[in-house]
Design goal:
homodimer; 434 Repressor (Amino-terminal Domain); Rossmann fold; six-stranded parallel β-sheet; four-stranded parallel β-sheet; 14 helices; 47% helix; disordered N terminus; DNA-binding
DNA sequence: CCCCGCTATGATACCCGTAACATACATAAT
DNA sequence: ATTATGTATGTTACGGGTATCATAGCGGGG
């Protein structure tokens, strides 16, 4: 009662509301109950008498009440927020992960919060700090390469974390992905099987990115196993602004350095497609004169001519699995960390299908 | 002092912390100041004596303090959160808007919060409610078509809202985009200029989407102005799961219904590219036997052969502009609503470049 | 030497909910 | 009739910050 009066008084004094809309106290006053009952109508309706519930509901409706989750989360300790950091959305590689993730968590009533790191771990570190200030219930990171400070703060904070896109190393917490090393190894072996002998590899920078490093390992191993020699790996330094032109330029650079190259394995379809277009312009025959393979299985690889041989990665599935892992942890705090290998598959299309050897 | 003691006491009693990490009060105790001074070190460092500042900073560092923004936002009324609702990330159309938006707002220290509506206004309405519970500082919506309830709650709540992808109608608040009608009109006129006379239009469902409706208007107007007649518009019902195959099927359906069709204007590059691939398989010559045009200017249109004639839309710019509009409003609450037409451009490539008339 | 104004810091109240416990009845079990 | 068991609602005390106003110390002008 005291509370109700106080609140009515506040309104009558004409206090200007800083925030938006009416508060739970106002709804309570209108319905003739306390805040606690209003809160129950929202969280545990079955614990409220149907008549009361109805009165409260119509009070909420008539005032246009929208609960303030900031306040709720402050006490309850749960924000219902999942944060994700991806390098970029410029191509669908990481967008698919977000779609899968969103799909799963939104069914559980959680919301998604996104940051773009531009492939930079230092940027990522700042974003992690900023994200933790919002106390998310979980975090999804891209890759396993993070600054030491990032790993430490995440560990000490104890937030559930899922790292994606790899599976072999020691994660901060949970992990879902596939073996980039095996995938690169498999594709390289496939190129060899198809008859190529002088196979170059165009990679992203392995400096801030374990995917690139592991793919290089897989490539080199496969080459060595076949008793072949590997031309120097061509490293493409890039930020988020990736485009096919880069692949075209890489093609020319590789051919200049290694004139007898007969196949190029690109670390991304984006580059591989650029190389195919460049070959078309330069009159270089794909796949006979040069074989081209990519990574990611993007739509452009299906659309280009000749169609692109590539590695299919389980992007959507990684997002979905990451979501399920977080949900599992949230409903059972002591759930085991969990590491999941979702595998990959080779997609053999025209660009590396040699018709004559 | 009293406060400090109380807090130390709490710690000594061994109270288990529900949330994460140390609180501002603990930092204050360690530094021998009050919470208020710690707060100032974070928000207005220049108001704190350098010595004190240093003591507080090292206390924060040694405890691994991460401020709780939920608590801060509750009082300050600002969350530093911008929410965006897009239909999907399946193709880069909307992803580009998010990139542009994120780019601008993250420089201002704001974070991004994303929901996927799957092109459904009823889903969007639920998401708007959920979003408002988090009290974002601003909201970016895709398109102008929203449920009445959505428009009402947003208006009454008074959050800054930017609607995107159109420019001609009455927005909830602010708006940035281009004229879908004019764009469709321009492309249709271009097809006519190029010599096509029996031009079909393949559209998305105009039911929940003013973009589709306005593009149809532009198309029909251009056809009428040229004294031609329009074949029945082929409507593709789709959800977020859009793929090129849909375009291939649409091509066959249109050719069946209108055998003398000599050009098809698709409402998205995704469909147009699918049609080009289908034509290749069916042995239909593009652009001579049939002209194909798309919308959006996606990368696949640059990569497919023949390359795709399309409408370039200012996706990244819309995102950036939306960000700037929100920032403007946040720094000056009375800033005018603002409507911005960013225009479009035709990209004439091979798929509608007739070599013989 | 007094008052002014500025700087640095503190005290207090409050933001808007929820957890946890208390209370008031009503009904069921003994 | 008495106690146990529920059900419906209220009371109280925070959660972890920030706005606001108060206060102490200090140099300068008259």
């Amino acid at each position: 009662m005291a509370e109700k009066d106080r609140d009515v008084l506040t309104r009558e004094e004409g206090a200007v509301r800083r925030g938006f809309g009416p508060t739970m106290a106002e709804v309570a006053a209108l319905a003739g109950v306390t805040k606690m009952t209003v809160s129950r109508v929202l969280r545990q309706p079955q614990k409220v008498n149907p008549d009361t519930r109805e009165r409260v509901s119509s009070a909420m409706a008539s005032l246009g009440y929208v609960p303030n989750r900031l306040a709720g989360s402050l006490t309850s300790g749960a924000t219902g927020l999942i944060a994700a950091i991806v390098p970029t959305l410029r191509h669908s590689i990481f967008a698919d992960v977000l779609e899968g993730l969103s799909d799963v968590i939104s069914d559980a009533g959680l919301d998604l919060f996104v940051s773009f790191s531009s492939y930079r771990t230092d940027v990522e570190e700042g974003q992690i700090h900023s994200i933790l200030e919002r106390r998310p219930d979980g975090l999804v990171l891209t890759g396993l390469t993070h600054t030491i400070a990032s790993r430490e703060i995440l560990r000490s904070f104890g937030v559930p974390v899922v790292e994606t896109w790899e599976t072999s190393e020691a994660p901060i917490d949970m992990m879902v992905g596939f073996s980039n090393r095996d995938a690169a190894h498999a594709m390289t072996s496939e190129l060899i099987r198809a008859g190529y002998r002088r196979i170059a590899f165009v990679n992203g920078s392995p400096r801030n990115n374990e995917r690139a490093r592991l793919r290089a390992e897989g490539y080199l191993t496969a080459i060595a196993e076949a008793g072949l020699s590997a031309p120097p790996i061509h490293v493409v330094e890039h930020d988020a602004d990736i485009g096919p032109e880069i692949g075209g330029r890489a093609l020319m650079a590789v051919r200049q350095q290694t004139p007898d190259v007969d196949a190029i394995f690109f670390t991304s379809d984006i580059f591989a497609v650029g190389a195919i277009l460049a070959c078309r312009e330069l009159g270089i025959g794909v796949p006979d004169q040069i074989g081209i393979a990519g990574f990611h299985d993007l739509e452009i690889g299906r659309v280009v001519s000749p169609t692109l041989t590539t590695v299919h990665v389980p992007a959507i599935e990684m997002g979905r699995k990451a979501g399920h892992m977080l949900l599992g942890r949230l409903s059972n705090a002591s759930a085991s960390p969990g590491r999941h290998d979702l595998g990959f598959s080779l997609v053999l299309r025209e660009s590396a299908r040699r018709t004559k050897g």
